[in-house]
TrEMBL record:
Active-site annotation: 202 (proton acceptor)
BP terms from Gene Ontology: malate metabolic process; tricarboxylic acid cycle
Identification of the protein by name: Malate dehydrogenase
The species this protein was found in: Phaseolus coccineus
Pfam families (alphabetical): Ldh_1_C, Ldh_1_N
Chain intervals for the UniProt region annotation (Disordered): 1-20
Catalytic function, reaction form: (S)-malate + NAD(+) = oxaloacetate + NADH + H(+)
Residue ranges of every copy of the Lactate/malate dehydrogenase N-terminal domain listed in the record: 28-170
InterPro entries tied to this protein: L-lactate/malate_DH (IPR001557), Lactate/malate_DH_C (IPR022383), Lactate/malate_DH_N (IPR001236), Lactate_DH/Glyco_Ohase_4_C (IPR015955), Malate_DH_AS (IPR001252), Malate_DH_type1 (IPR010097), NAD(P)-bd_dom_sf (IPR036291)
Similarity comment text for this entry: Belongs to the LDH/MDH superfamily. MDH type 1 family.
Length: 338
């Protein structure tokens, strides 16, 4: 409770960018799966974030070492490592943001859905603990298949009576990061000024980059747009194949996860106009969850933004992704209610 009252007191001092000369609010961030391929660099990046005052690193093994290492960095947050299920409650208590990169990654030849059997159970257990120890935290779900793990968490929270659709996010930021990088390369523009919304979900054709809305504008040929779309949809597979059995994207994902968590913290701190794409409960389409731009605020999702005008190619992409996304969502819901 004291964390939250300190947050309210400090909020008026936050500058637009979320960095201020005055003290910023106290914020606890918990990383679940902190000793993993994503978890370690993500913990490092969260340790570098001045908006974090308390960094809680949880995993079933390996967190004492990661926490000791990261804790020596001379930045604001206090770092504590928690190891094993019996320490999960302490890891979560008082958390404002919980980031979840726990679970197994793909190997070549696998789809994200092939991870369902192992990761669904992990996510269900972690969501159950969140509903008990930090029911008001913003949850950033990285564990795959995101199209199913987010609905699983939602169902767990509903059963516990703690569900708030404004506080649950599937992290699709890596799709946006990739779309920006690939677009900048083809459009020959500086990547740091590029914006590309990516909507739908986070697997194969459910990832739908909207290059017709990309800025700065570049009149790219249709075949280039098609190739950029396919590369964005298969960006994860490109990394899985290059790593040849040693896992999937970890470093670019840690970057993307840190970016999204930072946006959540800025929203919580009252920074205006924080907009990111995320897979959230949605009425943008007939599907109950959908990734689109969302405005982040003091309670999480302030507003789910619409799709905007789509090209014919994007409209077709939207129609073709709905079947797969619907069944992945239903698979998650059914699992949680088993
Ligand atoms: P990894 O195997 O390197 O690390 C996973 C970590 O999770 C391990 O340290 C493991 O001990 C931990 N873990 C397992 N069960 C746990 C539990 N019950 N509680 C807490 N921690 C637990 O895998 P990784 O490369 O870090 O990937 C993690 C997940 O993130 C995978 O499911 C992967 O598919 C997904 N991922 C998602 C995106 C995205 O864009 N959303 C991008 C990349 C990877
Ligand atoms: C990604 O997009 O890199 C992740 O979802 C990991 C994967 O399995 O591709």
């Amino acid at each position: 409770r004291s964390l939250h009252s300190a947050a309210t007191r400090g909020a008026s001092h936050i500058s637009r960018r979320g960095y201020a000369s005055e003290p910023v609010p106290e914020r606890k961030v918990a990383v679940l799966g902190a000793a993993g391929g994503i978890g370690q660099p993500l913990s490092l990046l969260m340790k570098l974030n001045p908006l974090v005052s308390s960094l809680s690193l949880y995993d079933i093994a390996g967190t004492p070492g990661v926490a000791a290492d990261v804790s020596h960095i001379n930045t604001r947050s206090k770092v504590v490592g928690y190891q094993g299920e019996e320490e999960l409650g302490k890891a979560l208590e008082g958390a404002d943001v919980v980031i979840i990169p726990a679970g197994v990654p793909r190997k070549p030849g696998m789809t994200r859905d092939d991870l369902f059997n192992i990761n669904a159970g992990i996510v269900k257990a972690l969501a159950t603990a969140i509903s008990k120890y930090c029911p008001h935290a913003l949850v950033n779900m990285i564990s795959n298949p995101v199209n199913s793990t987010v609905p699983i968490a939602a169902e767990v929270f509903k059963k516990a009576g703690t569900y708030d659709e404004k506080r649950l996010f599937g992290v699709t930021t890596l799709d946006v990061v990739r779309a920006k990088t690939f677009y900048a390369g083809k459009a020959n523009v500086p990547v740091d000024g590029v914006h590309v919304p990516v909507v739908g979900g986070h697997a194969g054709i459910t990832i739908l980059p909207l290059f017709s809305q990309a800025t700065p504008k570049a009149n790219l040929d249709d075949d280039i747009i098609k190739a950029l779309t396919k590369r964005t949809q298969e960006g994860g597979t490109e990394v899985v194949e290059a790593k040849a059995g040693k896992g999937s994207a970890t470093l670019s994902m840690a970057y993307a996860g840190a970016l999204f968590a930072d946006a959540c913290l800025k929203g919580l701190n009252g920074v205006p106009d924080v907009v990111e794409c995320s897979f959230v409960q949605s009425t943008v389409t007939e599907l109950p969850f959908f990734a689109s731009k969302v405005r982040l605020g003091k309670n999480g999702v302030e507003e789910v933004l619409g799709l905007g005008p789509l090209s014919d190619f994007e409209q077709q992409g939207l129609e073709s992704l709905k079947g797969e996304l619907k069944s992945s969502i239903e698979k998650g819901i059914n699992f949680a209610n088993k």
